[in-house]
Amino acid sequence: MVTGTIAALQKTAADLLVKKTVDLVIGYGQSPLGDIVPLFIRKAEEAERLQWNRHCTYNLVRYLTDREVIGPAGVGPEDRKADAQSKDTAAGKVAVVVKGCDLKSLVVLQSESQVRRDRLTVIGLPCPGVTDKGGRLLAKCESCPPEAYNPREGLCDLVVGAPVDETGGRPVRDGSFQEIEEIDALEATERRELWDRYFSRCLRCYACRNVCPLCYCKECVFDQHDPRWVSPAAGVATNRAFHLIRAYHLAGRCVDCGECERACPVGIPLRRINRKVAKVVEESFHFQAGLDPEAKSPLVLFSSEDPEEFIE
Amino acid sequence: MRIVEQKVLAKLVQCCLADSEIIAPVESEGRLYFQLLDPEQGLVELVWPEVGDSAPPEDPLTVNSIKEFFFPRRQELYEQRPEGIIPRTAPIEQKRLLLFARPCETRALTILDRVFLGETQDDFYKSARQNTTVVGLHCLRPDRYCFCTSLGGGPFGTEGMDLSLTPIAGERFLVTPVSEKGEALLASLSGQEAGEAEQKALEILRNNAEAAIRRRIQLPEPKTMAEYFTSEYWKEVSRACIACGICSYLCPTCHCFDIVDEGYLRLRCWDTCSSDTFTRMAAGEDHRKQKHTRYRQRIYHKFSYFKENFDTHSCVGCGRCTRHCPVKIDIVEIVNGIGGLAAGGGKP
Amino acid sequence: MSGNSKNGRKLKIVGFLCNWCSYAGADLAGVSRLQYPEEIRIIRVPCSGRINPLLVLKCFQEGADGVLVSGCHPGDCHYQDGNLYARRRMLLLRSLLTYFGIDERRFHMSWVSASEGKKWAETVRRLVEDVKAADAEAKEGIPVW
After folding, report:
1. DSSP conformational letter for B4
2. What is the pTM of this model?
3. Substitution target from B239, B281, B321 for chain A, most A beta carbons within 10 A
4. Tens digits of per-residue pLDDT, C46-92?
5. What ipTM is given for this predicted complex?
6. b/e burial code for range B148-164 (CB count within 10 A of at least 16 → b)
7. Are residues B137 and A26 in contact, defined by beta-carbon separation less than 8 angstroms?
8. Does residue A195 sit in the same domain as residue A109?
9. Domain interval for residue B18
């Protein structure tokens, strides 16, 4: 029962704060307008504001690389120095609530040394899938492998809530890359038209980039002006470059948490881009992101077996 | 006020296609956008407002506002070639008919006028305003994000419109001219003159719509805002913000822009103060590197500085910023909180 | 031998050549007086592994009709394994370019060693033919990028 889970979650958070295991809990709350929002609490009394329901779509792992949120829990040299000087055992320790998909992005952050795992308390929540406002299961949840419904115990510090049945429940599409294959099967001109139509809508708001837990570069390639790789002005050509490069930078890193697509105000099907890259990475480099915190990114590796049919 | 049947209006719009560009809401994959209609498609794509039991419980609103038809998101200005300057933009000469703009965004045009038609006039903007007939649509069912009434507007407002439409049952509209352009357009719309019954019906619809707006912003005095500029409050309220550009770009009153060179081409494009490169300067200096300083800037610009400079807030309560924010940052809650800080005797 | 685009405009093709193999191979083609299209503009880099895919994309954005990346054969890289990283990178880049509907004939990759002057000339000829074919089939009014 979800209500049982909420109570358990609230108690867990309150305990962590009271016992000074952490000084910040990142979870889901509810706004006065009734929307689920990210919640940042520092006092045990605030724990009762924590929520958990089918609308908890956000990937809160995104905040673990935001220094303005996590403060000294980060990986910067200034944070490690602050640690050494701090007497407060809770200072710079953060608890974060994660679903299976969110947890995968944390695994990638770990493999890239972007979090100090010893300063995190990861609270896993079994997830039956999240929905949009209309109650429809999000497309990303339809592709969620059953093993991710319940956060892997080895990767979380705590799991709150009853496990979700891995055998029943949501429809799992056969061949999760079917959508991608359909696009691949189109003529080049049709694909060009398809994507150009979406790229003409793109506002370059960067919501997709900013909501992504793995786009954490302090100076993003798109903000560089010397050299300037892509014009910051929106336009079909520049937008195509933006989406291509961002997808490329996420190769072997994107775990398909789907936040980018959810955040996009103009409905660009971004998952269809990231999953194309995931398909290439899986088929050509035999790698899937988000499973092993010790794994190295496929682009810093090579194999003598790497395909080279395209090379003359 | 005249009662005009939808099919009569449709016929007029169809005729206008011959000599005008038509901008209207179009649906794409479940979302509504203001778009220039493709003359070859005609009115097929145009989404008409629905009234009655089959209508959705809340008026479906477009993602983008009408702002971009006066202040384009990408505007190519000129090319600087060795042989000389080649202009790439010109004042609009083509007539345009803009359909079903909501009262909030038409009111926003009057606010944008203060910026683009002030001491320095933007020729493109000016010609766009002059050559566009704005046909507004009243809101029967504002959603929970709307808060136009506490900013001097309302679901049945007409500021910035040339002609206003109130949709009523039976696929009809109550049509009221607001300007001379509107009168001219009305002349081509046949229909019965509205009587007392219709006036009463209008009043009821208006009252219902206004009552439906529960969200209220309490605007603090610029003086109060000044006191709380350095408060830790700004860090708290902006913590969840991801510093993207959705609120600025969808906002009908936000108007900041950047000038960018692409090869020979110089162009103007939208920019957002939320971006961490917005205040980046030539030597790399950036005085708003911290996220909370940027969020604070956004609030102060809209509710303090703009008010002080132009005697109007740079917000019309359309709610898009909250409606589309990926993390549902609530601008109303945040602004109301300033008053709360002051009332609670909070230290600045 | 010249490569002109559909409307007679001269084609702009950029080639990123690694210094130790491909550039030397191209040089050999030169001293051997082998003919190959002049449209290729060569940029010498230390290794194909130095090539950031962003460079390729920058070429397309700035108006290139085609781009070539050429390096040493696997196993022969002057820096041991630079070309092996390049192989992975360019495969991925090519997949994305094709996915977005950019004609795959516009982006080539080749292994050309220092002694393969003839192969170099053939590679460029093939590239220019491919780009011309892509141009010819391109829809009216649709730019390369």
Report:
1. E
2. 0.96
3. B239
4. 999 999 999 999 999 999 999 999 999 999 999 999 999 999 999 99
5. 0.95
6. bbbbebbbbbbbbbbbb
7. no
8. no
9. 2-212
